Amino acid sequence: MHHRWMRFAAALLACCAAGAVHAATSLAYTRIDLPDTVAGNDAWRHTYTLEGALDAFHGLTLIYDHTRFSDLDLGPVDAAFSPLVIQPDTALAANGLVELTALSAVPATFSTQFVLDFVRIGPLADQHPFALFDDNFNVIGSGTASLAPVPEPSVAALILSGVLLMAAWRRRSAAPPS
User: Is 100 exposed, middle or buried (0-12, 13-18, 19+ CB in 10 A)?
Assistant: First the structure.
């Protein structure tokens, strides 16, 4: 019985290690409704978390639909990136974009946050598409930034109770028979 438990633990660790090595670049965000300082403008903030490896001069592009966003204001970004912001233009029906280009290679363990304030002029979606590009600006990947989940206390309690139940079962099965 003990060997089966050890093999299971070794297999689980191997799967986790393989997932960490091959992890893709990911992007998640949180959303906050800011106080409106100008009448008629609905101010919002997205705080993005970018994780994963990027080669030198590769980067990330986020597109902002001209029917839903205006007045993009990118806060400070990590010194490892060169930022570019192009405003959406409703008169030309042109979307805006935020682009971050890595100035040097960043490792798979890399994680950074950046903040974008904007005015909402249309409905906000819970997912935001993005593209990854190489040093020739060819799209080499894409994905969807999702609202970061807020962990529920009940989930943590359920996991903890499962771990405690397994520990009790293990202790009981290891006890010598009476």
Answer: buried
